[in-house]
Every structure is written in structure tokens, then in C-alpha cells.
Amino acid sequence: MSVGTAVDTQIVAMGGGGFSMEPDNPALDHFVLSLARRETPSICFLATASGDAASYIDSFYAAFRRLPCRPTHVPLFARTPDLETVLLAQDVIYVGGGNTRSMLAVWRDWGIPALLRTAWQQGTVLAGVSAGAICWFETGVTDSAADALHPLPCLGFLPGACCPHYDSEAERRPALHRLIRSGAIGTALALDDGAAAHFVNGTRANIVSSRPRVRAYRVDRVDGEIRETVLNPDDADQAGP
After folding, report:
1. Tens digits of per-residue pLDDT, 154-194?
2. CATH number of the domain residue 40 falls in
3. Residue 138 and residue 118 in contact, taking contact as beta carbons nearer than 8 Å
4. ∠ CA 17-169-125, rounded to 5°
5. How far is CA 234 from CA 57, 163, 209, in A?
């Protein structure tokens, strides 16, 4: 890349799905790889939100070794490599699900948010599911605490709020409505499992899905009432190889 050449910044936020939730349907994972700047991209998995669960990391390798890419991962609960060297060399950084609050705390201690921002600005695709989706926004709706769903300040690479698992976890929709009604959250992006929002240069460029009738919504309050606007009503944009 020559000095001064502008690159697009890209983020893919998945409400659920991908290799960990739909192991027989790699559509969203193919979509993420298709955005990379190289034909056979390097992709690094951050499983911090799960405490670097070995089974999760194993599932990542099992899935992505079958795809046209070069997979690796960065451990933060074992001997950790030089993070700047590893993260800034990636074409894709893929963040897994789990406890978002704990993940962000660990990341901040290691200085990872600044490295992720630099990688993003240099053209690395940032992607993730659940915790790995909401972390990029100003606010995420999280179940990190056991008592209830709460708004959580996140990295702020993208404006607004995000709520994953909108169709699969019964408490998600009423909790998001309550938070918006109370003013704790303004406009939010809500993603069903299997729905992904693709952002280019900070603006939502596309909604893709791994299967039919999976939805993404803009949720806000109008005249005191909650309004849900479907963002992909015709299912025209199915992810795939």
C-alpha cells in the first residue's frame, strides 16, 4: 500500500450464526472472507470472551481450515505473543462470543482496542458474533451479568447500539424495548441469529443472512412507541460462497 492511499474500513457484526452456531452452514464465514483484501487471507480468532475456551478455538480451526484462508488465534489466558506484530499482520480479525464485559476489560489491559483500531484503519476486516458483534458499537446489549440484560459501553468504532440473538433468546426483544423506552439506549440495530450487518467506512452498507426469513431491524422510539423497521425485508441478500 502506498503512502496516502485511502482504504475502506469494514466491520461485520453477526447476531448469531457462523461456525460456532451453524457448523454445517458456513455462509456468513464465507461472506467475511470474501471481503478481505487477499484471495487467501490471514484470519485471526480472538476467543477472549469465552476465556479462550479450548473447544471454541478447536471449532474455529476445524471450520476455517476447510475454507480458503490461513487461520490463527491469539491467546490472552496463556503465553501471549507480541500483539502488535500478530494483529497488524491480519487480513481478518474474528471475535467470538461470550462475556463481553470481561473481554473488554482484558483487552484494555493488553492495549488491544488501539491495535484493533489501527488494523481496521489499515484495511483489516473486523468481524464477530454476539460479543464479537456488539463490541464494535458505542453500546451493546449484553447478558454479561446474570441478573438482566444491560447496556454496556463498548469500543465505539460504530455509532449507536447493537443487540444480538434477537429472535432466539426470549428476553432480548422485551429488554431492548425497555431500554429504548427508558432512554438508556437510543436507536439500536437488532440482529437475529444468522443475520449480519456489513459496515463500510462507519456506515451500514448491507444486511446479509445465512438462511431465509432471518431479519435485522432498526429499533427506535417514535411518539413514545417502539418502532421496529425491518432492514432486509425481501431476503435478497443471502450470504454464501
Report:
1. 999 999 999 999 999 999 999 999 999 999 999 999 999 99
2. 3.40.50.880
3. no
4. 30
5. 35, 21, 11
Q: Report the amino acid identity of residue 62.
A: A
Structural domain boundaries enclosing 223 = 10-230
What distance in Å separates the CA atoms of residue 78 and residue 130, rounded to the nearest whole number?
23
* Residue 176 within any structural domain of the chain: yes
- Is 50 a known active-site residue? no
Sign of CA dihedral 199, 205, 211, 213: positive
Beta-strand pair 125-129/225-230: unpaired
Dihedral angle at the C-alpha atoms of 170, 107, 217, 169, nearest 10 degrees?
-10
| Dihedral Cα 169, 174, 178, 180, nearest 10 deg | 70
Among 20, 50, 59, 130, the one annotated catalytic: 130
Q: How many domains does the chain have?
A: 1
At residue 147 the predicted structure's pLDDT band, cuts being 50, 70 and 90, is confident
Which of 20, 50, 59, 165 is catalytic? The answer is 165
- Confirm if 196 and 15 have CB atoms less than 8 A apart: yes
* Assigned domain for 2 exists: no
Beta carbons within 8 Å of 157's beta carbon, 6+ residues apart: 11, 116, 117, 120, 126, 136, 137, 202
165 classed as catalytic:
yes
- What are 210's three cell numbers? 445465512
- Report the candidate in 126, 133, 96 with the shortest Cα–Cα distance to residue 20: 96
**What are the Cα distances from residue 160, in Å, to 4, 24, 114, 136, 184?**
30, 32, 20, 10, 12
